[in-house]
Write a structure and sequence with these properties.
about 260 residues, alpha/beta, six-stranded mixed sheet, three-stranded mixed sheet, 9 strands, about 45% helix, globular
């Protein structure tokens, strides 16, 4: 696929997706959202990609919705256009969660509004010391619960902190985000990409189906209605995976003290 507002770089089975509107602080234009959506939607059928790293070019990860954009004239009513834009970005975030590939987000500078939601929708987040994030939507006369924030944030940091951030739009900075578990680590800017790549390498050292089904179980069991339901998902996946060639290869490689050679998805 050819893109103008994002860059995609392959590092073996890992792809680095860079939001590439640096002069606009990677604000979410209609084109950027559409291109990011095209990329994310295709992941379900791409066996060559096993982990995705998401980052931003320039001084910020993503400043949120591009409210300065000169939007093209259409025949839509104001409501129709608003609804399309709202649900289009939401579909990108849902696609990130449903994709079999884990997403590792690398945040720096500002991550506001929709940019904050992109971080929240990722599976793992690293940040630089200057990273600051907020649910900016409430600052422009909208609600703080937007683009998945009221779903993701309470599950990551608890109801109290989520309410504090969503009801005020105040910023949470990297040091506090790290203490509260919203970030896995805070590293200097020159180490941010290598930190993400190192984690991606650890992930791809595992079997492709094992990696994909573990992400699926995490997504499902965070909302499991009971411990029985959670165990049922785990039991189902383990029995399925125990019958794969990759499991037999991993067991053999462990005994032979070598790196397993997986067949892939």
């Amino acid at each position: 696929m050819s893109f103008q507002t994002i860059r995609v770089e392959a590092r073996g089975p890992v792809e680095i997706v860079t939001l590439d509107r640096p002069t606009a602080l990677n604000a979410l234009s209609e084109q950027l959202v559409a291109e990011l959506g095209d990329y994310v939607y295709a992941l379900k059928h791409r066996r060559d990609v096993r982990v995705v790293i998401l980052r931003g070019e320039g001084r910020a990860f993503c400043a949120g919705l591009d409210i300065k954009e000169n939007r093209l004239e259409t025949n839509e009513t104001r409501f129709q256009r608003s609804w399309r834009g709202q649900t289009q970005l939401g579909d990108v975030l849902k696609g990130m969660r449903l994709a079999p590939q884990p997403f590792i987000a690398l945040g720096h500078g500002s991550a506001c509004g929709g940019g904050f939601s992109l971080l929240l929708a990722s599976d793992v987040r690293f940040g630089t010391p200057d990273l600051r994030m907020n649910a900016a939507y409430i600052k422009i006369g909208l609600g703080g619960a937007d683009i998945g924030s009221s779903y993701f944030l309470p599950r990551l940091v608890g109801a109290s902190l989520a309410a504090e951030l969503l009801l005020t739009g105040r910023f949470i900075h990297a040091d506090r985000a790290l203490r509260l578990g919203l970030l896995s680590d805070v590293v200097e800017p020159d180490r941010l990409l290598e930190t993400g790549l190192a984690l991606a390498d650890e992930m791809v050292a595992n079997s492709p189906y094992g990696l994909a089904l573990t992400k699926q179980a995490l997504n499902m069991n965070i909302d499991a209605p009971s411990i029985e339901s959670a165990f049922a998902i785990e039991d189902r996946q383990q029995v399925m995976l125990a019958g794969t060639e990759d499991h037999r290869e991993a067991m053999t490689a462990f005994v032979e003290k070598r790196t397993p050679q997986y067949l892939g998805r």
